[in-house]
Design a protein that fits this description.
alpha/beta, 14 helices
Length: about 550
């Protein structure tokens, strides 16, 4: 366990934050100050942390005071020294006698060293400042006189950027740097030291942090820190509900086709809402899965229907016919230029948004007939370049690689007595690529390369099968589940899902496999003359 000697001059809020969070299991062995009136003494005592006061007596030199500090610390065992507003420049008398000493400075060094970093940042008119955790080095000469150019000059361990907003004053900036910058950076640095991830080369004046690298053995490309800066592109009418304020922020470094940067062609139409952006993003991501002409209709981030076909108009018609009732007020996404024939079919029922990589002039004439239909041109679809997705949660963010898995017929492992036909294999691949975009638990019925029934977001996989069957029987137009392929985003834990599928007329199943009851599930498929293939990989989507 890493033990810390904390040295503060006033309130010691950084030290108390470290004590409360215990990053990497570190704990404070002692808090020392040079003022008997420092509020940190009471706060430390309330936490059961021993305290020491070494006053700066009249006539006491820098080195004499540091020798007194060293003597006060003799009784304590510690591996690291952390300064927090300790308003004394330390010399080699202290630094050579103690383990590595860290300080946090309220600016991005080497910018704005010294006492008034916040005021200096405001005076300079910078848009970003922050804080720096650095190793403390000797900034005095042989006589103990401070060498100003060497103050705050030690090697940097970590930094945290903080924006400077219009209207900031020194007090507001100071508080934000503390709570949003120092309270993140200092515990991070302590954690790295506690985990043995830091190498300090005092002679070379360098710090190496193994943990702060996306190439670390356990990183797999995920960096130790994820710093995200995006600019507010627009404020929205409201969020998911009218009582929630909302805005859309843009990442202008994103090269992948996306709805944030898409041009809204009918400028007179109302702007996209929060839900429009969310649904349009989901629709666009779905149709990027396919090379053939593809169309999808999305409602509440779930596909109401999806299809590929020889033409984009035919693909849209097949997608819509899966569940035209649910598609009312939905989002349409196309992976080909929208032509007039497709546009005519789109406006035949109410839609909120159309997303496509271009439109013919005739198509725009048709679409612009609908005043409230937003028409987005995302440009050439190109490659999917964004590697990560993230979800904010209270207290942090979840970050993961995008689910870019793509299967082919060769990836399927047939596990039943009956082999699938070529048409069933093609349908399995289509169903699996579409199912990735259905909220879990997800079940999808497909016939050829079009959906016929989708069961999404159920807490029971059997209920998801029943929902897909109900959608196919009651909502689909001109098609049903008889003879269709069923895809499941995770394994079937019991044979009951297969039994329900058989009742609906399903004849082929694609699923990950991997259940302890796989043998029973396969036996049920065999009993019903089904063919079943395993993908060997799951496709959950919980957002």
């Amino acid at each position: 366990m890493t033990r810390i000697a904390g040295m503060a001059g006033n309130r010691g809020r950084n030290l108390l934050n470290i004590a409360d969070r215990a990053p990497g299991g570190a704990e404070l062995a002692v808090v020392l100050t040079n003022s008997e009136d420092a509020p940190v003494l009471e706060s430390a005592a309330d936490r059961g942390i021993p305290t020491e006061v070494v006053p700066l007596e009249e006539g006491m030199s820098r080195r004499e005071h540091e020798r007194a500090v060293n003597q006060a610390l003799v009784e304590y065992e510690f591996d690291l020294v952390c300064l927090d507003g300790y308003m004394r420049i330390l010399s080699d008398t202290f630094l050579d006698a103690q383990p590595t000493t860290l300080n946090v400075h309220p600016a991005l060094l080497p910018s704005f060293p010294g006492m008034d970093a916040w005021g200096d940042a405001l005076e300079a008119g910078v848009s970003v400042t922050g804080c720096t955790v650095h190793v403390v080095t000797d900034a005095t000469d042989e006589d103990g006189t401070v060498v100003r150019d060497e103050v705050d000059g030690g090697p940097i361990v970590t930094q945290e950027p903080i924006p400077v907003y219009e209207g900031d004053d020194e007090e507001s900036l100071k508080e934000r740097v503390l709570y949003e910058g120092e309270f993140r950076a200092y515990p991070r640095a302590v954690k790295w030291f506690a985990e043995g991830a830091v190498d300090v080369d005092t002679e070379a004046g360098e710090v190496t942090v193994d943990a702060d690298s996306p190439t670390a053995p356990d990183a797999e490309g995920l960096p130790a820190r994820r710093l995200v800066s995006s600019d507010r592109a627009d404020t929205l009418r409201y969020g998911e509900n009218p009582h929630q304020n909302a805005a859309v922020y843009a990442d202008y470094t994103c090269d992948e086709a996306n709805v944030v940067h898409a041009e809204q062609l009918n400028e007179g139409a109302k702007a996209l809402s929060y839900n429009n952006y969310n649904d349009a993003d989901g629709a666009l991501n779905l149709i990027k899965e396919f090379d053939d002409p593809a169309a999808a209709v999305i409602k509440h981030t779930n596909p109401a229907g999806c299809a590929t076909a020889d033409s984009i108009a035919e693909a849209y018609e097949k997608a819509l016919s899966t569940d035209p009732m649910s598609a009312f007020g939905g989002i349409v996404a196309l992976n080909r230029e929208c032509d007039a024939e497709t546009a005519e079919r789109i406006i035949d029922s109410f839609k909120e948004v159309v997303v496509a990589p271009g439109y013919t002039d005739d198509a725009l004439d048709v679409l612009f007939e609908k005043d409230n239909l937003r028409v987005l041109d995302v440009g050439e679809l190109g490659d999917r370049t964004e590697r990560f997705t993230e979800k904010p949660i209270v207290g942090g963010r979840l970050v993961q690689e995008r689910d870019l898995q793509s299967i082919s017929v060769d990836d399927l492992e047939v596990v039943t007595e009956r082999e699938p036909t070529d048409e069933e294999l093609e349908s399995m691949v289509f169903a699996w690529q579409t199912l990735k975009h259905v909220k879990s638990n997800g079940i999808l019925f497909a016939d050829g390369t079009e959906t016929v029934g989708i069961g999404m977001g159920q807490v029971s996989r059997v209920d998801a099968v029943r929902l897909a069957a109900m959608k196919a029987d009651e909502h689909a137009e001109g098609k049903d589940a008889e003879g269709a392929v069923m895809a499941s985003d995770a394994f079937f834990p019991f044979p009951d899902g297969i039994e329900e599928a058989a009742k609906a007329g399903i004849e082929a199943v694609v699923q990950p496999g991997g259940s302890v009851n796989d043998d029973d599930v396969i036996a049920a498929a065999n009993d019903h003359g089904m063919t079943m293939a395993f993908t060997g990989q799951r496709s959950f989507r919980h957002d």
